[in-house]
Amino acid sequence: MEGIMKTAVMTGIRKVEVTNRPIPVPAENEVLVKVEYVGICGSDLHYYEAGRIGDFIVEPPFILGHEAGGIVVETGSNVRNLKVGDRVALEPGKTCGTCEFCKSGKYNLCPDVVFFATPPVDGVFQEYAVHDAGLCFPIPDNMSTMEAALIEPLAVGLHAAIQGGAGIGQTAVVTGAGCIGLVSLMALKAMGVSRVYVVDVMEKRLQKALELGADGVINGREEDAVAKIMEWTNGAGCDLSIETAGTEITTTQLIQMEKKGSTIVLVGYSASGKLTLPVSTALDKELTFKTVFRYRNIYPMAIEAVAQGKIKIKDIVTNIFELDEIADALEQSVENKADIVKGVIKI
Ligand SMILES: [Zn+2]
Ligand SMILES: [Zn+2]
């Protein structure tokens, strides 16, 4: 399909312009997707604001956006699993398929992964994208392409819940109620965890957590989170926790409120990349620490959970912006983190 499409290009720190580029051509194993929705992720905002995350440095012009849903409009000559008109969720990471991690199924750890919107690989804040057919997962008729876009962050929450051994009858705590905290909450509930408590310091996020099914929320600025969890669990502590805030305070609180022998899943990156923690307490309790890097083998499960109504993923969205107003959308999202819990760009 020849033609011109709109693309949102990051041209410098806190600068994004909508410009025209040629519509890309799919290779034989790829499809061309008309992108319909792309979620705004914390990592996009970080690149936009700071120009880097750790060793990944933006070299403008660069395209952000990695949470995409859309419609297949053209297929490469070898593509058999998809046809024109299929609505799909795009898994953003293409891996080598031959290294020991890929072969053992832990493909998210592939050293050669090529991932949307991770410098130098461009993302998909644009009207069309080509992508490996094997990484485009069809969604059923009762799901929207906005929900397809949100499968990406949901996959992180499900991976964290699975890593933590979530199951029926447990009590869990999630620290941080940004997008990843909220999808972790939803994943835990969907996996049968009986009670999920959420800790944050922003009221609007806590309200959102309640709306999405949290059994109790704690504003860590106003209340002693550890005392509150101990009260709610009759002194027992929690069976499992997912840390998404990336702070020493929240991680320390989890160590204190965990039941002996239980598991903490670390998901949030701390600002400095380091945490000082009460390790003796963790040893005394024989806690297990797990970490997650993105996710693996989750998309089909996540799509099924949303299609069956087990996870109402669209309810996390607080703001929908048009592609033409993306500069404003990113600026507002950075300036107003307390109110914009999850934004998406409609393309
Ligand atoms: Zn994301
Ligand atoms: Zn590999």
TrEMBL record:
GO terms assigned for molecular function: L-iditol 2-dehydrogenase (NAD+) activity; zinc ion binding
Pfam families per the UniProt record, alphabetical: ADH_N, ADH_zinc_N
Keyword RNA-binding part of the UniProt annotation: no
Top class in the EC scheme: oxidoreductase
Listed cofactors: Zn(2+)
Keyword Lipid metabolism: no
Gene3D superfamilies recorded: Medium-chain alcohol dehydrogenases, catalytic domain, NAD(P)-binding Rossmann-like Domain
Keywords: Metal-binding, Oxidoreductase, Zinc
The EC number(s) this enzyme carries: 1.1.1.14
Protein name listed in UniProt: Sorbitol dehydrogenase
Organism of provenance: Robinsoniella peoriensis
